[in-house]
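S.,

Sequence below, as promised.
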Amino acid sequence: MKQIPTATARRLPIYYRYLKILQEHGKDRVSSTELSEAVKVDSATIRRDFSYFGALGKRGFGYDVDYLLDFLGKTLNQDRLTTVGLVGVGQLGNALLNYNFQKDNNVRIGAAFDVNPELIDTVQSGVPVYSIDDLEKQIDKHQIDVAILTVPREVASEIVDRLISAGIKGILNFTPLRFAVPEDVRVQNVDLTNELQTLIFFIDSDIDDKDILF
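The prediction came back faster than expected:
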């Protein structure tokens, strides 16, 4: 398989979700043009994205919905449950607990960590909350490879170091900080303020480049 560009990898879950909707409505096949209209990615980009994985469709026929959904599901590990740890049960962390990836049943938050004694040893939205002192032990016990980081910036670097030492391979980082990590650890940064400011910039600048959002 060719090396997949980051932009393509970001679009795959979008395709998967829409194909899931098509399957639920009994749709057997779909063209790149139909996909384009639904997910707002131009059809040439969709065909190029799929070409990284070989011949997934046929000219004049389009894509078999069941086959493509199954292929993308395996590519995105939709057939494997991934248990995620949440570090920081503040306002944002609590919102993530309430959501707990209900639309993506292959991902669930299995353990949360905090320093607040009122939260420790409680169950929030069906998820047990442990002391941050037990971080390493519970990561090993729950076999957690991915962590969501929603802690104050003052302690974020220390927590990241502990997560890496505990064997975490992926971090979804909601803090404004950026971290230097080993090559075998992936950090995905989510800066809500930056995303909002970027959106406002494009609105004010009247730049018509919808694909920049992907």
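The CA atoms of residues 8 and 21 lie 20 Å apart.

Coffee later?
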